[in-house]
Amino acid sequence: MLVIALLVLVTAMVPVLVSSPDTRDRPLDPADSSLLGGKALAELLRRHGVSVERVESVSAMAASAGPDSQLLIGDTVALSADDARAIAASGGDRLIAGHQTHLDILAKGVLTGKDVRSRSREPQCALPEATRAGSAFIGGVSFTVPEGATGCYPAAGRPTLVRHTVDGATVTVVGDSAFMTNQRLGEDGNAALALNLAGTKPRLIWLTAPEEPTSGVTGTGGNKTLGELIPDAVPWAILQLAVAVAVVAVWRGRRLGPVVAERLPVVVRASETVEGRGRLYRSRRARDRAAQALRAAAIDRMAPRLGLPPTASPEEIVAAAAVRTGREAPEVRSAMYGPAPADDGALVALAAQLDTLERQVRDS
Amino acid sequence: MALTGRAGLLAALGALVVLLAPDPSVAVLGLALLLAVLVAVDLLLAGGVRGLRLHRDGERLVRLGESVAVGLVVENPGRRRVRGVVRDAWPPSAGAAPRHLKLDVPAGQRRRLVTTLTPTRRGDREAVTVTVRSVGPLGLAARQGSHLVPWSVRVLPPFLSRKHLPGKLARLRELDGRHPALVRGQGTEFDSLREYVVGDDVRSIDWRASARRSDVVVRTWRPERDRRVLIVLDTGRTSAGRVGVAPHPGQPSGWPRLDWSMDAALLLAALAARAGDRVDFLAHDRTVRAWLSGTSRNDLLSSLVNAMAPIEAELVEADAPGMVSAVLARAKRRCLVVLLTDLNAAAMEEGLLPVLPRLSSRHTVLVAAVADPRVADMASGRGTAELVYDAAAAERLRGERRWITARLRGQGVEVVDAPPEELAPALADAYLALKAAGRL
């Protein structure tokens, strides 16, 4: 039993474990119009004459990168070290929004500091993009500014937006990408800041997470499905459990000797024919026959008590019964030889009447 | 061959090993191989079941409602110990317990196992097979084999009306020679001559005998003896109907009329045998099912229950002319024919009534039938239309029974119609009344 229960549990859990994660919400996707998407920003940029190219892979990004383009890397994109190196090697300007691993490669010299709460902050710096935009919803993580870099929107003294020049490319790092989403774009100077940061070049190449998470093939790492996270040994253990179930089935299935058949007697109550006849009377409303049977039985029992032979005529019996009970002869006659009852109530009444008559004959 | 729960447990624990193993695929294969090898070894080491020698002992007869022990001796001539379980299979109505017996026989020794049978029905119960499962020393696998060890237990009618026998015997003794009657009357025969003592009826003085001797001698009389009673049991369809409350559990819808009739027949036979009459027994539906004749008085009851035990009601219309012919062919001398059947108006009118004169002209006939108490209950139903309709149907049946009873009595046949529990004493009373009246 235990083994079977275990197997049922495991088979029930497998679909839950391997089911793919929910992919409806795609944060900071230029094609996504949900609250977390980036479609509003993409539209704004297009209206300002910036062409937005949406790419899903690092290789596509590297292919379309050029001196007139800027890269936008959101925090939903998981990059491997190789990817980061490829992007850094492409040498274009890049805007890194939100927390990103391999920041040491993408933005050499910028180090992440403490996590800070995202809220409306003042620029407090000389960066024109920031001062023109004014306050913005920003935070997420604070950075350590390297020599020659500009830091804005400080939280507890450390900037959450850093602009730095690495190998001739302008790299901008923002601690939190929330201000660029459809939800936050209308607040504060968020829209202005996002436009200023993202619209520095005529083309914006926007890297988003691919639609289908094919992490094994893209090699982005850390983006595995649950099916891949299950240790290799588990399917084999399930196979072993199946073997155990087969063994248990053989154990329980082997009968100790044959099934013994026996010729059984009929089991039928002798009273069933009577019950059937009673039901038949009822279903056909056979009050005439029922009354006749009840009357005949009562008369058969009364005749000897009245001192009459079984062959006595109705008149003799009625007369004798009337004399014995002191009741009127017509009344006795209607009970013993009257017409058939008109309805079921009359039949029940007749039965009671005959009982009374019989009791009076017996007791008198 | 059979596996055990331990093998299943081992395989299930193997799943844990597979989880922890460095190479799970090899572990699965290895475990399967290991299990197969262990099972094979266990099978090889298990004691052989084919070579076991089995035989039975114990009781062959049991009254319905009682239990009987049947022994099964298992002898192990092999070289290895046989350890495991035995199933001694009996038909379900034999009520065999326990279902499984534990067995542990060292090599060259024997053990006796006991199965207790508590049958729920009358008749012969044959043992089916004995299946032995011999588990190996590891407890992973077992050898299994079946043996045929024939044995049958005959389940006899319980003879519940035994309790009425002392009372009826007391009444019989009142008629019997314990108090020799001095008055010659019907149903008496000459017993002996004895000397006259004061107080004897002078009319009983045998003058011839007194003349031969110098003393006054009186004749004494006793109830007639050495009459013949032929009990005829109708085993046709009307006897299959169930009536009353079965005296033993396991028969929820009552007991067949046949069994109640047998009970009454047994009381009658016991009484008649004590009264010095000869009892024969015939069971008949379309053919003769059982015939018992010429048994000594001491063996009568045991022979009778043995003859009755395997009889079951057949679902065919009884052949009344055939039955009358069978009786006439067997009863050469005048006897009391007790016919245990049902007072079914339709069956009687077409079957027995036309041929009854052939029987009643040569023999005294007594018809005994089991009345259905359920019908009496239904006949007293009042109050609602449903109950009154049922009561009318019941009254109709009782009216038919009264009519057929009247017709039978009109032909000089005695009729006993009583509820199941009261049939046996009523039949015994009718017999005693006939005996007292000298109509045997």
From TrEMBL, chain B:
<feature type="domain" description="DUF58">
    <location>
        <begin position="193"/>
        <end position="379"/>
    </location>
</feature>
<keyword id="KW-0812">Transmembrane</keyword>
<dbReference type="InterPro" id="IPR002881">
    <property type="entry name" value="DUF58"/>
</dbReference>
<keyword id="KW-0472">Membrane</keyword>
<keyword id="KW-1133">Transmembrane helix</keyword>
<feature type="transmembrane region" description="Helical">
    <location>
        <begin position="30"/>
        <end position="52"/>
    </location>
</feature>
<protein>
    <submittedName>
        <fullName>DUF58 domain-containing protein</fullName>
    </submittedName>
</protein>
<dbReference type="Pfam" id="PF01882">
    <property type="entry name" value="DUF58"/>
</dbReference>
